[in-house]
Amino acid sequence: MAAADAVTAAEEQDKWLADAMALVQHNAFFMHRALDNNNLRDALKYSAQMLSELRTSKLSPQKYYELYMKSFDELRKLEFFFKDETKRGRTNADLYELVQHAGNILPRLYLLITVGSVYIKSKEAPAKDVLKDLVEMSRGVQHPIRGLFLRSYLAQVSRDKLPDVGSEYEGEGGSVNDAVEFVLQNFTEMNKLWVRMQHQGPAREKEKREKERRQLRDLVGKNLHVLSQLEGVDLAMYRDVVLPRVLEQVVNCKDEIAQYYLMDCIIQVFPDEFHLQTLESLLGACPQLQTTVDVKTVMAQLMDRLSNYVASTPDVLPEILQVEAFGKLSTATMKVIDAQPDMPLVGAVSLFVALLTFTLRVHADRLDYVDQVLGACFKKLEGRGKVKDSKATKQIVALLSAPLEKYNDVVTVLKLTNYPRVMDHLDYETNKSMAVTIIQFIMKNNTLISSVDKVEALFELLKELIKDSEGNPALDEAKDFQEEQNLVAKLVHLLKNDDDTEMFKILEAATKHFTEGGSKRLSLTLPSLVFSALKFVRQLQFRNATDESPVSPKKVFQYLHQTIESLSTVPAPELALRLYLQCAEAASDCDLEPVAYEFFTQAFMLYEEEIADSKAQITAMHLIIGTLQRTTVFGVENRDTLTHKATGYSAKLLRKPDQCRAVYACSHLFWNDDGGTQDGERVLLCLKRALRIANAAQQVSSASRGSSGPVTLFVEILNKYLYYFEKGVPAVASSLVQGLLELIMTETQSEKTSKDAAVDAFFASTMRYIQSQKQKSDASGERYGTIQI
């Protein structure tokens, strides 16, 4: 039904416009004929009848504009006729008097303005007198739409005839003061007409009227544009005359649409230097606007213009400082917010975003200003808890992101004491997202966090990432949890300071925060701390730090021990074992035997008490053996204890093949080429024990499956024999190699042995290697010469 009514209304508008256009065209035809015949009386008669069509109240502003433009074009032709009429001896004063005999006021005034334009141009009368008369006479039309278009016509035809500085009409025709007075008076009356539109008609058509008013707003705004183009309007006149009069009209009209549009016009049409010198007056009007006016956008545009002005003209920066622009803008922002207690939170935060953007562009070096803006925003947010409005949240993120993007340095942002306070008001997910952004900035710029205070400040910003808090979802359900914690772990390696004492304090501070983060985070974040501390230990070792140093390697190892112990709450025994072994190796490099022994002890205890999975035991055992083989710090007694433990646990693994491989790996614990332990007998003992276990594995396979398994273990042991044989281990004689070769040959030819192409290829490759060594003419060839294949 509504759609049908709308179609009908639109059709009616088209019909009314067509009828009016036809009458305008009809009368214009007779006017043209009269003009061609130099018949002034008929020309005025038909032009008045043509202009009478503008008296209609039926048309919408859009349709009325089309009718007005058609009439405007015809009036231009009439104006040329009036000029020619003066050449034929008729005075402009006579014409000016004659057109006032038109019957209706609207046609009369259009004709009067048209003649007035010619009158001013002829200079037969001072421009100021004619203009004053025209603007006063135009008050006779008080219908909003008709009056607005009439005054728009007056402004249009007079704009090039104002007695401006340097104008041909200046002097006897008046001064720039007269020009300004004329435009201001016309502007004031037009604004009153425009505002009056809002209060005419039924309440149900309010939206329609507002739409129509927005269509007409440029008619009013053109007056301000004319003022801005006057050469004689300098800063003094603008400050003392123009701005006060315009602002008075803006404030007193008490109309939301008019106030917003006119404030926007003032900001856009007048020069930046004028705004700078009249900032207090302009800002003083903002709190006086209606509470429904979008003041935040108005002020944001003003701040944006001023900051662009400074960016394009750096020389004006001293002027900005002189007028105390920041202080005035900051005060005005707070006054606007206080004056509008019902302003939505998003509006208030948007104002702070605009103010902060201005501050960062104009006063980037004044961190106290930046922090002051953040503090004002925090005061507004205080007591509200977590912000739930998505639009306000978006603005808070924009506020927090601005300093990061401007300084491109998180360390600078950490100096802003109000930054974390504002960030606290973000909901959990948004806060966490902001924390991730901060870490990414640090990583991107490779920013070093080099003091305990900065670490504390940074972790305060990142607390939603590094510790549990109210409102957190279950971490198992949280998206991207592992990626986020990996980012935190990477961050640890940028916590650095060349001063040993400060670096150790940084590690302790980071550990305190991480250990409060809950068991699920520890396994992802603590390892990075351990490796950062190990790197620190090696730096201390390089600098020859001793126990008397402010921070000694021993002290760092004590810290490492405590840190890894905290993983027991997770629990993560396999990870803890790996970290203990890393620390043991580092302690060995620092020549700290008791410390290295303690770390190995902890690793064995974890193996005994916590690691029950057979696959995990295999991995752990080989890690222990490999680490123990690389450590060279132990004396005979401690080394015997540890190697005994390692070989003992190797032989107790669940599966025979795993036992075999672990035991022959233990052989490396007794032979070190770098001048360490070289006990050939114990090497041989390990290899023989591995061989017995391999035989037992074959028997188990035969008993359970009816056939022996492949000879994989035998070939692997053969390769170990060959390794030590080449190294010249006395106990590993060629006869032992020969015996093992024959055993493998016998097993491979046995029908009970399972066939495996990979094992056969492995054995064939080993045989080719032996053959190649036999063919050498050096010591290797001589050593391998006794082996028969």
Automatic annotation (TrEMBL):
The family database entries (InterPro entries) matched by this protein are listed as: Vps35, Vps35_C
Q: Name the UniProt key words of this record, in alphabetical order.
A: Cytoplasm, Golgi apparatus, Membrane, Protein transport, Transport
Q: Its GO biological process terms?
A: intracellular protein transport; retrograde transport, endosome to Golgi
Location of this chain's protein in the cell: Cytoplasm; Endosome membrane; Golgi apparatus, trans-Golgi network membrane; Prevacuolar compartment membrane
* Source taxon at top rank: Eukaryota
Name a GO CC annotation attached to this entry.
retromer complex
Where does this protein chiefly localize? cytoplasm
Q: Membrane topology type, per the record?
A: Peripheral membrane protein
What Gene3D superfamilies does the annotation carry? Vacuolar protein sorting-associated protein 35, helical subcomplex Vps35-C
Q: Which PANTHER family match?
A: VACUOLAR PROTEIN SORTING-ASSOCIATED PROTEIN 35 (PTHR11099:SF0), VACUOLAR SORTING PROTEIN 35 (PTHR11099)
In the record, the note on similarity to other proteins reads: Belongs to the VPS35 family.
Q: What does this protein do?
A: Plays a role in vesicular protein sorting.
Q: What name has this protein been given in UniProt?
A: Vacuolar protein sorting-associated protein 35
Question: Whose protein is this, by species?
Answer: Selaginella moellendorffii
